[in-house]
């Protein structure tokens, strides 16, 4: 929208004159010499003749063409021109002629036209008037300049116009004005002096589909325009208007709202409703119609039904409404026209009331849902006189035109008929049914909706994904009395197969893909009458490409930004190599192993999504299909160790674990802390282990203390597992005791003890605790037995020691508790010495032999014979024990009396001292 005052227009004319007067100043300072080619003529600007004076035509580039460009054209006489002339256009702002734009364009080999599209909006500015001229460059020569043309760029439409009407002023329902068919004037006024026309559209809520756009010219440039218009409906109306400028730009729009007064009477009938027919009424059956006045002083209503129907006049004697009984004379859609007549004789506009008189037959019987191949039964009852037959046809859901095939069913004498209809196809909306009278008159068609279930077969497939392996299909359908199924494979008519249905109506068949790639089938079921179901189908792909698996990069899952392994297995025998491509890179070949499988160790270059394509290759170079394997790689931490196990020992703990299935394990880091709280990081607590092994023994653990161990996995990228499992061994305390501390050889000692938690003192029941013994004088401990603690944690074991022992209880090998061992409990074992007398009485001068054995054997050791004299034992002899640990003493007393003896074995390293029982004899 360009606005000019008179002074502005004069200024433009003066500038234009100045430019034209000094044309030599525009363009190159030194030009080519004059040539034989004349100056271009026939100049046009955007298809309009050259305007030799400013401002020229007003142009809106966006409205000119798809390029939004001003097109400049001209012609020239190319007689004598060279093979490759060029058009040299100059375009300048008339307010700045010293800075022209230059546009050089080649001219076609046989063309005599110069042409340019000014597509750069930065060089065709809104509101600017431009001048242009053109010449032809022919090698070093140039034609004279053409004449100068002008145009003005106008890209904007400006503000909206205003609308006024004295006949239909703006307002709401309280300011309704005018009436239907009463014309009124509407005046458009522009806010711009550039307006040449107005574009408008009247809208009625009652007749919304009838709104059309119209154009009216302004009385003068920038002036108003008036249109005269009569409403065809009452109620809410709007007027939308645009002002259009010289460049064809539309302004913003204005909406003008007004309400047209209602002067048509209101019409209502429940008998003959305007929306749907009332089947209680028919041709010749009177129905009540209510006419209600909408204007004051209405004295009567005049009515008529189109198509030669009845008509009449009815007075309004009181109130605003009168009821009229009207009997339609024919069937079908018809319109009742009613208008009011007021006391002064004014005839007001007609109210058009459209309704349908329905004399179509009544249809009763089965519900309207049926499976293809099955039948529905209907009773047809006439609603028209002298019916002798019925005509019906199918109505389809498809928008495609289909031929209408009508079927006639004769009526009985009473006009009724029975219709058995079989669903032989699907895609129906229903049936249209008409009665036909004896004179051939057809009633209104009755629509009876029917839904036909196409009984599309249900199809399942098992297998067939690999070339050469069969696919097994099972199909069934809801259609009754199925006899067979027709199957077409891969769309080839030659592959059509017919399979007999089983007793239950299903079918099972097989198909083996022989070539890799896409496979498909379509299937229909048929009954004995040849009626087919809706077609079902399945498409699948059979491949001969290899199987791909990877624990490091799971299919459709996420793997780590670390090396991983893929394993390939061929689906067809004879693979000697595999070729793989990652993200559509060139294929790389790797050799197959002797079992024809392949292994690829691959390191992702970065995080992201990847597609691995793999194909197998035979020795003859034959390649399988490529199989795609998609996965995602992310900078994930390594997985933790699993199968974590700790076994408590005495002062130590045996720890073991399973490494994660990754290739870039740098270290398993094990840290411990005293107590129940695990180390919080790979550098806290006390170091236990750092390496790539699967077990370690933690040593230096204090007896009775609780220890908690935590495990981290670190990969070669320095990332730690986010899950750091831990294990705890609770400290224990074990005590030892016995019922005796010394006993004779061959007797038993009960070694006792107790196992408790070190932190709470609570008993540990059901635990296996080992009893060890160490022979006095030695350093070797020997496992004597394993006892199980009772619910109170108590331990007991009865043992017959052969020599003096140090006892201790040792608790270990628990996955819940740290081991511990008791202090020592020493139990001494005394040797046992048997003794016997050769006689208990001997004459003076005779001798008595004392003999016996020492247990356990102490062969080669000394035993001593002791006599009890004057209240004390005195050693009188000694002997070395035989190899069987026996001894013998011969005693020959020198005086008469009673003699008392015993045998003594002194203590040694592993036995306490032993004494035999005393023996006495008499010397007479």
Explain how this protein is built.
- It is a single chain.
- With 924 residues, the chain is mostly beta strands.
- It has two helices and 75 strands.
- The protein is elongated and about 185 Å long.
Average per-residue pLDDT, rounded, comes to 94
Q: How many β-strands, per DSSP? A: 75
Biggest sheet features: 7 strands, mixed
Measured on Cα atoms, how large is the radius of gyration? 60 Å
Shape: elongated
End-to-end C-alpha gap: 168 Å
Contiguous uncertain segments of 5+ residues? 1-34
> Beta fraction of the residues?
over 45%
Summarize the amount of helix as a percent range.
under 10%
- How many DSSP helices? 2
Structural class category: mainly beta
Short descriptors:
49% strand; 2% helix; six-stranded mixed β-sheet; mainly beta; single chain; seven-stranded mixed β-sheet; 2 helices; 924 residues
Write the layout of secondary structure elements.
Layout: H1 6-21, E1 33-34, E2 41-45, E3 48-49, E4 58-59, H2 61-64, E5 70-75, E6 86-93, E7 101-106, E8 113-118, E9 129-138, E10 141-142, E11 149-153, E12 162-164, E13 184-189, E14 195-204, E15 213-217, E16 225-229, E17 235-245, E18 254-260, E19 266-268, E20 287-292, E21 298-305, E22 311-315, E23 321-326, E24 332-342, E25 351-357, E26 362-365, E27 369-371, E28 375-381, E29 387-396, E30 407-410, E31 417-422, E32 428-437, E33 446-449, E34 451-453, E35 458-463, E36 471-476, E37 482-489, E38 497-500, E39 507-511, E40 517-527, E41 536-542, E42 547-549, E43 558-560, E44 564-569, E45 575-582, E46 588-591, E47 598-602, E48 608-618, E49 627-634, E50 642-648, E51 652-658, E52 665-674, E53 686-691, E54 695-699, E55 707-715, E56 726-729, E57 732-738, E58 742-744, E59 749-757, E60 768-775, E61 781-788, E62 794-799, E63 805-811, E64 820-821, E65 825-830, E66 832-833, E67 836-837, E68 841-842, E69 848-855, E70 862-869, E71 872-880, E72 886-891, E73 897-905, E74 914-915, E75 919-923
Parallel strand pairs: 1-10, 4-11, 27-34, 43-49, 58-65, 68-75
Antiparallel strand pairs: 2-3, 2-5, 5-8, 6-7, 6-9, 9-10, 9-11, 12-13, 13-16, 14-15, 14-17, 17-18, 19-20, 20-23, 21-22, 21-24, 24-25, 26-28, 28-31, 29-30, 29-32, 32-33, 35-36, 36-39, 37-38, 37-40, 40-41, 42-44, 44-47, 45-46, 45-48, 48-49, 50-51, 51-54, 52-53, 52-55, 55-56, 57-59, 59-62, 60-61, ...
């Amino acid at each position: 929208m360009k606005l000019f005052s008179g002074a502005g227009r004069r200024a433009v004319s003066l500038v234009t004159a100045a430019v034209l007067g000094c044309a030599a100043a525009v363009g190159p300072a030194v030009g080519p010499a004059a040539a034989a080619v004349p100056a271009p003529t026939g100049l046009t600007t955007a298809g309009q003749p050259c305007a030799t004076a400013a401002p020229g035509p007003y142009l809106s580039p966006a409205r000119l063409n798809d390029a939004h460009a001003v097109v400049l054209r001209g012609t020239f006489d190319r007689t004598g021109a060279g093979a490759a002339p060029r058009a040299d256009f100059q375009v300048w702002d008339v307010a700045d002629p010293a800075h022209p734009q230059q546009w050089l364009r080649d001219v076609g080999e046989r063309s005599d036209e110069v042409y340019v599209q000014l597509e750069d909006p930065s060089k065709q500015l809104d509101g600017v008037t431009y001048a242009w001229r053109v010449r032809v460059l022919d090698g070093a020569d140039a034609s004279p300049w053409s004449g100068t043309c002008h145009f003005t760029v106008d890209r904007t439409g400006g503000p909206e116009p205003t609308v006024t009407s004295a006949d239909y002023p703006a307002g709401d329902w309280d300011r309704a004005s005018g009436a239907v068919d009463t014309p009124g004037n509407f005046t458009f006024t522009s806010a711009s002096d550039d307006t040449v026309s107005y574009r408008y559209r009247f809208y009625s809520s009652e007749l919304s589909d009838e709104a059309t756009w119209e154009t009216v010219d302004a009385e003068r440039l920038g002036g108003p325009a008036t249109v005269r218009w009569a409403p065809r409906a009452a109620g809410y109306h709007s007027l939308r208007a645009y002002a259009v400028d010289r460049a064809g730009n539309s302004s913003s729009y204005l909406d003008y709202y007004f309400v047209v007064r209602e002067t048509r009477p209101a019409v209502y009938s429940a008998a003959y409703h305007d929306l749907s027919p009332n089947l209680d009424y028919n041709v010749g059956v009177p129905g009540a119609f209510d006419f209600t006045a909408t204007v004051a002083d209405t004295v009567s209503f005049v009515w008529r039904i189109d198509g030669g129907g009845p008509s009449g006049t009815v007075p309004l004697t009181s109130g605003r409404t009168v009821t009229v009984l009207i009997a339609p004379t024919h069937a079908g859609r018809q319109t009742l026209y009613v208008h009011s007549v007021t006391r002064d004789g004014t005839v007001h506009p007609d109210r058009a009331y459209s309704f349908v008189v329905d004399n179509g037959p009544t249809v009763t019987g089965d519900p309207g849902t049926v499976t293809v191949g099955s039948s529905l039964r209907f009773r047809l009852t006439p609603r028209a006189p002298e019916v002798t037959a019925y005509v019906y046809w199918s109505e389809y859901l498809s928008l495609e035109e289909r031929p209408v095939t009508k079927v006639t069913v004769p009526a009985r004498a009473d006009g009724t008929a029975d219709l058995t209809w079989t669903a032989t196809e699907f895609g129906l909306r229903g049936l249209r049914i008409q009665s036909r009278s004896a004179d051939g008159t057809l009633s209104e068609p009755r629509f009876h909706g029917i839904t036909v279930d196409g009984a599309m077969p249900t199809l399942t497939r098992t297998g067939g994904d690999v070339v050469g392996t069969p696919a097994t299909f099972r199909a069934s359908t809801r259609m009754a009395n199925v006899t067979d199924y027709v199957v077409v494979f891969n769309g080839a008519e030659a592959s059509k197969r017919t399979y007999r249905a089983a007793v239950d109506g299903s079918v099972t068949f097989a198909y083996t893909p022989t070539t890799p790639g896409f496979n498909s089938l379509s299937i229909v079921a048929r009954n004995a009458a040849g009626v087919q179901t809706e077609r079902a189908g399945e498409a699948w792909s059979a491949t001969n490409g290899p199987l791909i698996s990877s624990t490091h990069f799971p299919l459709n899952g996420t793997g780590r930004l670390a090396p991983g392994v893929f394993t390939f297995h061929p689906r067809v025998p004879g693979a000697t190599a595999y070729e793989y491509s990652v993200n559509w890179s060139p294929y790389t070949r790797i050799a197959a192993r002797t079992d024809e499988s392949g292994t690829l160790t691959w390191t992702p270059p970065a995080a992201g999504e990847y597609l691995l394509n793999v194909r197998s290759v035979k020795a003859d170079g034959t390649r399988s299909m490529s199989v795609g394997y998609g996965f995602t790689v992310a900078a994930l931490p390594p997985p933790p160790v699993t199968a974590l196990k700790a076994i408590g020992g005495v002062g130590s703990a045996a720890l073991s674990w399973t490494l994660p299935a990754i290739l870039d394990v740098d270290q398993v880091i094990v840290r411990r802390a005293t107590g129940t709280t695990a180390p919080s990081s790979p550098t806290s607590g006390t170091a236990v282990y750092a390496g790539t092994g699967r077990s370690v023994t933690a040593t230096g653990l204090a007896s009775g203390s609780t220890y908690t161990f935590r495990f981290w996995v670190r990969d070669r990228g320095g990332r730690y597992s986010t899950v750091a499992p831990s294990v705890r061994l609770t400290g224990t305390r074990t005590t030892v005791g016995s019922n005796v501390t010394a006993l004779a050889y061959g007797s038993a000692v009960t070694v006792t003890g107790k196992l408790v938690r070190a932190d709470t003192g609570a008993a540990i029941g059901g635990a296996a605790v080992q009893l060890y013994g160490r022979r006095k004088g030695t350093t070797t401990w020997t496992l004597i037995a394993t006892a199980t603690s009772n619910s109170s944690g108590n331990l007991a074991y009865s043992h017959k020691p052969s020599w003096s022992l140090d006892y201790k209880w040792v608790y270990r090998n628990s996955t819940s508790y740290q081991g511990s061992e008791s202090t020592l409990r020493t139990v001494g074992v005394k040797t046992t010495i048997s003794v016997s007398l050769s006689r208990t009485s001997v004459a003076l001068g005779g001798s008595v032999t004392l003999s016996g054995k020492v247990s356990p054997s102490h062969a080669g050791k000394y035993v001593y014979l002791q006599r009890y004299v004057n209240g004390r034992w005195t050693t009188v002899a000694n002997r070395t024990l035989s190899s069987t640990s026996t001894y013998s003493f011969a005693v020959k007393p020198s005086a008469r009396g009673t003699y008392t003896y015993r045998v003594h074995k002194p203590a040694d390293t592993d036995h306490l001292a032993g004494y035999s029982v005393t023996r006495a004899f008499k010397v007479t």
